[in-house]
């Protein structure tokens, strides 16, 4: 009885151990950042995504290298040598980001996905750069990046990956080309400076001409106003003369002459003052009239 009891207990223990092993092998908890691949008797059966899953122990298994991370990853930016359309050798550094969307294709169709992507990247970059000149590469990086990404996406779908970003980080040329580009840049800067200086002189000349024209127009308008005023004054005087104001006009003329003679006499260098005869006559007439008034009073 004791031997049978021991054997029975041993069977129970073995059964319990087998149950525990089966539970350990059959229950799988997949983390959010991974996809697991299940093989049944050595052949791919299905893909396990995040969550709790049950597999058939001893018949189905998940190998350690079949736990595929699906997080976005970046390839190391290695310089790629290429020749542009105008035969300039350049070195291009790319940032390539991708993530795995179909782990079964990635594991069973390609041995090393990173090396495979880099190989395709090298060929695609050289092909795209070869259709563009150096200036186009320097100025259209975004367009070239989009074209490279499109070319790579066609191939990457076969490997179950999705390219999320392709960016040209740096474009480097040889020292001789750099020196030539610097000389060309300096020449272009000098040309722009000369053009701007010439445009400035031209604008200043135009502004000066406009100012002179404006001043001439204003001076002409002023002369016209003065001429109109003088013409108006002459018209008024002529009308006054016609109306019988001859004596008033003669009086004003004689007054102006007397003031002119007075101003000549005040000059320090004046030695002889010439007096018009009509002024003298006027003065004599005035003196004669004054004497006549005095004698009549006496």
What does this 3D model show about the protein?
By secondary structure, this protein is of the alpha+beta class. The model has no long low-confidence stretch (mean pLDDT 77). The strands form 3 sheets. Strands 2, 3, 5 and 6 form a 4-stranded antiparallel sheet that branches. Strands 7, 8, 9 and 10 form a 4-stranded antiparallel sheet that branches. The protein has helices at residues 2-26, 103-109, 113-129, 134-139, 141-156, 175-242, 246-266, 277-297, and strands at residues 27-30, 34-40, 43-48, 51-54, 60-61, 67-69, 73-74, 79-83, 89-100, 161-173. Among the domains are: 2-69, no CATH class; 73-173, Band 7 domain (Tetrahydropterin Synthase, Chain A). It is built from 8 helices and 10 strands. Strand 8 (79-83) and strand 9 (89-100) form a beta hairpin.
What is the gist of this entry?
This protein is of the alpha+beta class and 298 residues long.
- What is the helix fraction of residues, given as a range? 55-70%
Supply the helix-strand structural class. Answer: alpha+beta
Give the N-terminus to C-terminus distance in angstroms.
Answer: 196 Å
Number of helices: 8
CATH architecture of the domain at 73-173: 2-Layer Sandwich
Ordered list of secondary-structure elements with their pairings:
Elements: H1 2-26, E1 27-30, E2 34-40, E3 43-48, E4 51-54, E5 60-61, E6 67-69, E7 73-74, E8 79-83, E9 89-100, H2 103-109, H3 113-129, H4 134-139, H5 141-156, E10 161-173, H6 175-242, H7 246-266, H8 277-297
Antiparallel strand pairs: 1-4, 2-3, 2-5, 2-6, 7-9, 8-9, 9-10
Helix pairs in contact: 3-5
